[in-house]
Amino acid sequence: MEDLNLLRLFVQVTDQGSFSAVARSTRTTPSAISRQISRLEENLGTRLLQRTTRQQELTEAGEIYLRHARQIIEDVDAARHAVTRLSGAPSGVLRVTAEADLAVTLLSPVLPEFLETYPNLRVHVHTSSVMEDLISRGIDVAIRVGHLADSSLIAKRLTMSRSLLVASPEFLRREGAPQHPEDLARFSCLSFRVETEQATWRFRSSEDVSAVSVTGPVQASSLVLLKEATKSCLGIAMLPIWMVRSELETGTLVPVLPGFPLEPPATPISAVYPSGRNLASKVRVFVDFLAAKIEPASTDVIDPDAL
User: Fold this and answer.
1) What are the structural domains of the chain?
2) What is the reported pTM?
3) Residue 53 pLDDT more than 50?
């Protein structure tokens, strides 16, 4: 039977698309990866990958072998995890993906205590603004914002994210403060991830929702950047409370139009992970740890209407 390490390497090559990518992640050389895949093909007596100058494509035999290789690896890992859960603390590498803003603001503050609690674990955090395929990328846990589509993944809600409009006191002293959402049309507004010249902010009044178009000097796909621009007196921004909690408490930023609730009022933040017959202990303890640490700092602790 083939070495399990060769099976893992074969799956890794197909997931990452090239010998060079795998070589970088394993700190070896493309030629060394190629030799190991050739060894696997020699053992099987068939070609699994069709080499080209830039990438490798699966042959028909390779596609069949890949399905079985994934199942074998899953079964072996499940067996190991089942035994480990009985006898030892979580160990190994935990692979996590999240948007950069979430990683910096929510994950980084809790990681030191988590690693102190579980010293045999290492955490690899991959920041990405796209929805990664957890299974094909070998990711254990994703932290995602928003309502999740039905899938084979399991989601555990960590908290609810509420947003509010904020500005620096200096900006409001200089420009004045809007008294109604419609006033925002004449103010400098900083918008998140907008591909056109105008963003739209929505407000709820009784049973109605009104939309206000806003413009300003900064549009960005980074909430951290928008927060810093807001602190630099460049305008009014819509930011989640979990990101500006300390600034609200110190008065570096203050609420704008607190009497006009935003729509939607809140968005879930969830830990998402693949389903399986045996959930790895490292995933279980990480998700439980996040839920315990993030929920007490829920956005509901600070009520924007009371600020």
Assistant:
1) 4-85 (1.10.10.10), 90-159+267-306 (3.40.190.10), 163-256 (3.40.190.290)
2) 0.62
3) yes
